[in-house]
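Notes from hallway chat w/ T.B., transcribed later so I don't forget. T.B. wanted the structure written out for a chain they're using in a teaching module, and asked if we could keep both sequence and structure tokens in one place. Agreed to drop them here.
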Amino acid sequence: MIRLENKAPVHSGIACLGSKGLSVLGGVVPTLYEEWKMNQKYSGLSRESMRLSQGGDVDGPPPFEKLQVGAPSQKLGQKGKSSCQYFSLSAYILVLLLFLLYCLLRLLLKLLPLLSSLKIYHLEWQVLGLGSLAILDAY
């Protein structure tokens, strides 16, 4: 068993866990352990009876292997951390670019009356496929 010490960032439904935010509790839950032991004991009997009745080999689930509890490897913790940081950084850059685009468009909308008063007859611009904007000054 593990315990989450701090909040973990979640990106696209995946929790980015590092070695610093987790502590290994270990231990055995008695009821689950007893159930596992009984399943282990009787699973061989049911497989044997199925083999005998069908006259061949029946592939069942692989045998249970005990979990090796130890310190988490540093490579795994660092790899997950760097990929989460990369995702976080790219999302930050995207938000920053969208904000700059928003500010630029607001500035352009404020300058439109000034541009038309300077007798600019035709201004075309294309932003993110929105098309072209034409400003025509009426006489």
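Follow-up for T.B.: The chain has one domain: 2-114. Might be a good example for the class.
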